[in-house]
Amino acid sequence: MKDTNKMILDYPEWHYYPSSEKPPEWAHDFVAVVAAAKSSLSSVTVSDLTSDIVLSHLAPGLTLLNYKVETNKTAAAKIRRPVLLVPVTVP
What pTM did the predictor assign? Predict the structure, then answer.
């Protein structure tokens, strides 16, 4: 049985869940952006990566896919998203 969750790429290794469903096209597009930045992101060859550095390498490709990407930590550059928090109760 063919694994439809994987692209024909060596990097990054990824899996889509639920595995019984075919990954949507956006998942392939996203992984392709990460794969294109491999030389700048692979911890095998690059050290001292921070989230800011990683985003700086991914931002151009993600922006082309219409993602909004924070490019710095100023208040004006922040992307606000609502978050649903559910309190965890311990029995």
Answer: 0.73
